[in-house]
Fold this protein.
Amino acid sequence: MDAYKKGILLAAIASILVGIETIITKFAYNESDFPTILVTRGLTIVLLTAVYIIATNKSFKLERENYSTMFIVSIFSIISSFLFIYALREVPAINASLLANIQPIFVIIAGFIILGKSGNLKKSSYMAITLMVIAGVLITSKSLTNILGLNLGSIGDLLIIFSVLASGTSDVLVKKN
């Protein structure tokens, strides 16, 4: 399998996992509160990271020149998690999941700004980006009347988009180093 097809497959798997996470978090609001959900998510991420390091025999040693980048990545990741979990109180799970899946747009934009390149995009990638933007507008506006009136969503929708922007920027910063 070539790298392009492997990337598409991994992106599809990631999209499914984002959807599952969003639904589980939305259900968690029925039984818990925002701080508990945020801490539980953080601990789960630490646990999964430890399992990954152990399973792959990767070194956890961080070089001195990467400290500042890792600090910035951590800040972006914390902001992303905070905004996403907070916004889920206001936004239906399906909207949050669909909006979270437009992250590739922000990865491409951040890659162009930070790395000076947008990768090897094919014609189909540009078509997918266009469809993602259209889907984002349709999801947040909810009706043609709202689109025509430029009522493009709620504060919760905007927080999800900011969350995805922070997460995409974090991904590109990791790639940079």
